[in-house]
Amino acid sequence: MTQTAAARPLTPATVSEAFTQRVGTAPEGVWAAPGRVNLIGEHTDYNDGFVMPFALPQRALLAARRRDDERWRLVSVDLDEEHELGVDDLVQGSPGWQSYLAGVVWVLREAGHRVGGADLVISSDVPVGAGLSSSAALECVTLAALADLYDLEIEPLERARLARRAENEYVGAPTGLLDQAASTLCRAGHALFMDCRSGEVEQVPFDLAAAGLELLVLDTAVAHSHVDGEYGERRASCEAAARVLGVPALRDVTDLDAALAALEDEVLRRRVRHVVTEDDRVLRAVELLRAGDVAGLAPLLDASHVSMRDDYEITVPAVDDAVTSARAHGALGARMTGGGFGGCIIALVEHGRAEEVGAAVAADQTAAGHPQPRWFSAQPSAGAGRV
Length: 387
Ligand code: GLA
Known about the structure:
With 387 residues, the protein is an alpha+beta fold. The chain contains eleven helices and twelve strands.
């Protein structure tokens, strides 16, 4: 559609050519890892709860080749930037896009995997700062490439966990497992239902077209970030509430009314209510998808948004207005997706109406003084791998 995120062609061949130009030899291969949309299950992952993302066609592509020294050359085609690092430069808390790649080298070595040097040339069309996991795509594609190049036997779930560790311990963002699991484990045509405590996953068929539907993703262009304080603050509140309630994590709250009665702090009560009801919505959503009832998701999307807005307090006016506008223009259900404080909304619309609803919401957004959004119709796509 007219407002897709990719403004330029991004193919394995273009990234491979960029590699050859920069490095002077051809890469050994090209790997891909996607961004994601979280269909439902927001801020439940670090509470040991349930999530249900799917992978986007927008992805990071990485052309790579081993080196015989212990140095890593990291090239961003998009930013026309290059960094070369040695072992001593792999320092936690390093800033910049390159930390997502360097963090993966660091975490693999920390975990005892034998990873030598590499030239890595990357390009991505996952929108940055939109809550679509552009950073997880960088991490997961780096992990996929290094694991293949250095014959590391690492199970997919463990790959996701390592990539998350890179984000938590090297980049310094205290996120859960959602993004890296989605980028690594998703399959085309499916949503990924995951129990974030056990790591158990189910690939759930998610056929929008067969249901006569489309999923509009609209980026409000209000950038969000995880490295700031709000995300960590929400996480700390959940941990504090779990301590008061005497449970290992909020996922273990089985009687919401009793839990709310046991908490004196009104803010903690709201946070707990969001997490517990959101887990329940994911479980209901997976039942619906197993039964092929995609339209049945609509009220759950609406309820999820209200819960994020009123109880978890992670939405902003541009996001709330976009959801209201999408519903007013005929979306069956809509919610913010991702970590919050900006980023994207998703809206379930009748097949063939995504473009029209996207344009109508964009007009409302600019009339209300919000930034000009971008939008596209999402297709559940494949997770990380060699291409
Ligand atoms: C961000 C984090 C995820 C998850 C979501 C909220 O995307 O990276 O781990 O917590 O926010 O669901």
